[in-house]
Amino acid sequence: MRMTKLMEWILVGLLVLSSWIAVLIGKPNYANLNWYYKWFPVIFIFLFAVYAVITVLYRVFTFNNCKAAAIELQNQIKEARADLESKGISFKKQL
Fold first, then answer.
1. Number of helices (H), then strands (E), in the chain
2. What transmembrane ranges does the database entry give (predicted)?
3. Whole-prediction pTM value?
4. Which of 43, 44, 45, 75 is most buried by its number of CB atoms within 10 A?
């Protein structure tokens, strides 16, 4: 059975959350890491936001236009409009 992306994110999130809670309640005695783990959620949210913005910007800048698909869609719109006009529906522009 293959693990889905959602299950992977949930698993990683639970592992990180459980280790963070363990450090906060003092189970592993890591005195030097306490400051980092207390601020971990804020740091994690900030880094996740940076990752999300970079990913969205990258996908937007590398988005490819498909001229053939645009022409096909315009032709389908014209066909649908002609079909509806033949059935009595008018498409007058209204202000």
1. 4, 0
2. 36-58
3. 0.45
4. 44
